[in-house]
Write a structure and sequence with these properties.
This protein has helices at residues 11-22, 74-78, 80-101, 135-154, 178-188, 208-218, 238-249, 260-265, 275-278, 289-295; strands at residues 2-6, 26-31, 43-45, 63-66, 106-112, 123-124, 157-163, 165-167, 193-196, 202-207, 227-230, 234-237, 253-256, 271-272. By secondary structure, the protein is an alpha/beta fold. Helix 1 (11-22) links the parallel strand 1 (2-6) and strand 2 (26-31). It is globular and about 55 Å long.
Length: 297
């Protein structure tokens, strides 16, 4: 088995690289930086904005994890060209390379909760209504459709995994990503944790270790070929998570009014129904957010 990670210096990428090492999977790491940031032994620089850069990839790979990309909300409107060039253009370059080289690898793509139209107290399945409220979300939804199109037209194999809110770490200094990362950053600086509104929005939280094991294991089966899956986890209100962190660091929680733009971009509750993934037998979640907050941060 030979795997490729594109975006190996990123939050999920660096943890995935370590999981592949633990499972003795031969893999090569690529990212835009001139060198590996986290000690990956087999590494090369790759700018996904350049189609010709993909010609250095080994066409006999068995799996390609496409984890490179830009994330953001309001800034994605301000940097729309960068977001479309990287998030969508980069994937299209890879797909064109796979088409040209007849690469038979399974392409594993992480998508986002932000492709969904949020629904209050409703667990979202893979076919729930979609709504892209930012350019970032638009690029992710378009990327999913690009995979489906190339799969139909050229037989390219893929599996899409939608991730809600990842957290945790064992490589690098970032304890968590996104929502929890922001709260932890505030708390470690002994600042109040700020929450927009009453904090009653609900999310599904998944430890990055569980995310990585799902990406590796579930993408190894024929039954997950050309499929889309939600990755599950713990379901909490944002205020519940804030309380866990505030108690750990002995800081206050401050509820502040929604900025108008943030409120317009907010998707609402995004709770993941992962029954489809669980039915494959490849999903298991060994990490619990309460245990993580109490013991590991």
């Amino acid at each position: 088995m030979k795997s490729i990670i594109i975006g190996s210096n990123g939050y999920i990428g660096r943890h995935l690289a370590d999981v592949l090492i633990q499972e003795s999977v031969l893999h090569m790491n690529y990212d835009i930086h001139p060198q590996a940031l986290f000690g990956q032994s087999v590494y090369a620089s790759l700018d996904i904005r350049d189609r010709s850069a993909f010609d250095c990839l080994p066409a006999d790979a068995d799996k390609i994890y496409f984890l490179a990309g830009l994330t953001g909300t309001e800034n994605s409107f301000q940097q729309y060209k960068n977001f479309t060039d990287v998030n969508l253009g980069g994937l299209l370059h890879l797909l064109d390379w796979m088409k040209q080289t007849s690469c038979q690898a399974r392409l594993i793509f992480p998508s986002t909760r932000l492709v969904y139209r949020g629904q209050t107290d409703t667990f979202l399945s893979e076919d729930s209504p979609k709504q892209a409220k930012t350019i970032y979300a638009m690029t992710k939804l378009a990327a999913e459709h690009a995979l489906e199109a190339y799969g139909e037209a050229y037989g390219i194999s893929y599996t899409i995994f939608r991730i809600c809110v990842p957290y945790g770490h064992w490589i690098g200094q970032d304890y968590s990503y996104g929502t929890i990362g922001f709260m932890l950053s505030q708390a470690r600086q002994k600042k109040p944790i700020t929450i927009y509104g009453d904090g009653n929005l609900k999310r599904t939280f998944t430890h990055v270790e569980d995310v990585c094991h799902v990406l590796v294991n579930a993408s190894s089966s024929d039954i997950t070929h050309q499929e889309i899956y939600n990755i599950g986890g713990d379901h909490l209100q944002l205020s519940d998570v804030a309380i866990l962190i505030a108690n750990k660091y002995n800081v206050d929680i401050q509820n502040i009014p929604w900025p108008p733009m943030a409120l317009r971009m907010e998707s609402g509750d995004t709770l993941f129904n992962d029954a489809k993934l669980l039915s494959t037998g490849f999903a298991y979640y060994k990490n619990n957010i309460h245990k993580y907050m109490n013991e590991f941060i």
